[in-house]
Structure formats: structure tokens, C-alpha cells
Amino acid sequence: MFPQKLSLLNRPLYTRFFVSSRRCFITFAPLREKEKPKITKLEEAHRFIIDCFVAVGTTEKHAEIMADNLTEADLRGHYSHGMNRLEMYLNEIDKGLIDANAKPQIEKESPSTAVVNGNNGLGAVNGNYCMNLAIKKASKTGAALVVCRNSNHYGIAAIYCLRAIRKGFLGFSCTNTSPLMVPTRAKNAALGTNPIAIGVPGEDKSDYFLLDFASTNVAIGKIELMGRKGGKIPKGWALNEQGQVETDPHKAFKASRLLPLGGEEKDGGYKGYGLGMLVEIFCGILSGSAYGPTIRPWGNPTVVANLGHCFLVVNPRMFTPGVKKRMSHLMNLIRKMEPADPKRPVMVHGDFERVHMMQVSKDGGVRYVKNQHDANKKLAERLDVEPMQSFIKDGKC
């Protein structure tokens, strides 16, 4: 799984590169490539994103929250939900489809639950508010569930679980999205990619379990990113407009019909379909937001999203002592298992991101694909902001 994910990044494939992450040892080494990639310092990417949001009327505070969200995604290797999403947000603000300065409000609450109205504000602003509220409640009651309605795309679900992990809590987050998943036996999309994330702290603050996955085989952003890079997508990711399995990323992105996690029915896709329904129940039905096919279509929207989010926090101190210690022990037992292929070590969820973050630190920044740099240059011209600066290891570019 890990080497396959590495190949999606705009950097050399690795065969040997030493990394240590809490007794998890992985070795890779960079291969030569014709053109050295451009590297952007995280601080510079952060600055550029803030400038862009401020240019379309967003407050500095909300712009900073969005910059934190997008750069965190890129830092962790989830490029489909980082800088890649910037223009989408800005366009929706420009069209009046997102109120960039709206503040979330609690509409109904108990000591351990809350319903929050996102007031059509930025998804990350609403997401941070709701997870912080859930953490505050769980610290007193042991567990808390907060749902949000009338919101927008909130980035990668794992970011919110990290907020809980950093407080020593278990975190869960999910969101519904525009219809992109084709239910088992259907021809057209009716459910979103509906991502789910679960985070559990370990003994070491830098070592934790963090699972983040879409209810489809991939998020639509992965197909979009593959289209920017060139090449085919694997079978089982998406269908075309005729309802047939498609490997051309451009045709697949145009059709926007993703298969559930597992793929077709014969391969167990009905399970991913069920997970998608589960997310709709927690994010749409419980919160009172739009759900399933009632959510606006993906791509060039003309109406507000009205998405729903769900956040669950569990305080381990309310349960049997030693939760973090047992979690670390379990992760290390799994990591030390004999791999089927010695070149592909056994990993736990969160290890890929840790390795990627170490590579970013080693590089001195993030490696964006050329098309992303080109898109950012056009964006800077359009908004009249300072272009994002990048460099090549041995000199400026």
C-alpha cells in the first residue's frame, strides 16, 4: 500500500530511504529523474493561500484557518485536498455560494451533544469549531457527539481527529459530499465520497493511529490529480457516462461516477455503499443538512452546498487505564510482523503521513506538480497577489 501511494506524489520513486517512526523502520533511496521538482516552503504556501482568501474578502482569521487546513493536507501527502482545492473555494466565494466570514452557531445542545448551524460558512472554520466543542464536552462527560449542518467542503477528515489526538482523546469525523458514488446496482451517482476518519493517541505524541478513507475507492480529487499528472487510473475507481468501468482520468472526472469502496458488487462494493449510507445518516439525517441525491451536483455549482459533518470525541480517561499504552503496543505488534515482501514493510494507519512529513522536512518544503504551479501563477495574476515562490534544491527557480 505504501509504495503505491508514494508513486502518486510529484517526487522520485523511492527504493531506499531510511525512516524511523516509533520502531517502524522503512528504507528507500531516491532515483534520478530528468527534471528536479520545484519545492515550496510551507510558510510560503501558507502565505500565498492567506493572500488569495483575503483578496476575495475573507477575514485574516478565517483565511489563516483555511491556510492551516490546506497546508496540513499537503504536508501529510494528501495533495488532492490541499492546494489543489484552493481555486474551488475561491470560486465559490466569488459566486456568493459560500459566506467566507460567517460564524457557526449552536442551535441545540446537551452536556454531551450539539447541533451547530454552519451558516453556509467555510467548512474548515465550522469543522474546527465543532471538533473543539466536542473536545470540551467530552472532557467533562467522557464522550460527545456534535453534528453540523449548512456547511461546506471541510478538507481532509483526519485533520479534525488530530485536534482530538493532541488533547489525548479519541476522535472521529465524517462528512457527506456532493453525489459522486454510484450505489451498488445503480447507474448514476447518488451518494458522496463520504470520508470517515478515526484517530487514537499512542504513548508518544508523535505516534498515533489515524485512519482516513473515502467510502468510494478514491476521492474525486485523486482522479483530478491523476488527470493533471497524466496517465491512467486503475480499474475499479470509476465509471464513464455509459456506466462502464473507465481508466481515462479525464473521462472519469467528467462523468463523476465513482464506485463504492470495494468496487463492483462481485468484489464487495456493497460494503462501501453501506459505509456511504452510514455517513449520510450521521451527517445528513441527524443534522438536518442535505443528504444523498438532495445535495447539489459536483462541479460548477449554482446553489449552496448545505453539507453536514459529524464529530465524535471519546475521553480515554473515563475508561480502563492504559489506553494509550495498549494502542502503542498493538501498533508495534502489527509493524513488527514479517512482511510478505521484505521491500514492503507492514505499516499502520498514520505511518505513511509520518514518512511524508519527514520527507517534506528533509526537502525544506512541499513538492507540487507543475500544473499546480501553473494554476497558482494564473490565480496570483487574477487576484493581484504576490505569486507563490518556489526553489530547486541547488538554486532559485
From TrEMBL:
Residues in coiled coil: none
Top-level taxon of origin: Eukaryota
MF GO annotations: oxidoreductase activity
Key words, A-Z: Oxidoreductase
Stated family: Belongs to the LDH2/MDH2 oxidoreductase family.
UniProt protein name: Malate dehydrogenase
Organism, as annotated: Phyllotreta striolata (Striped flea beetle)
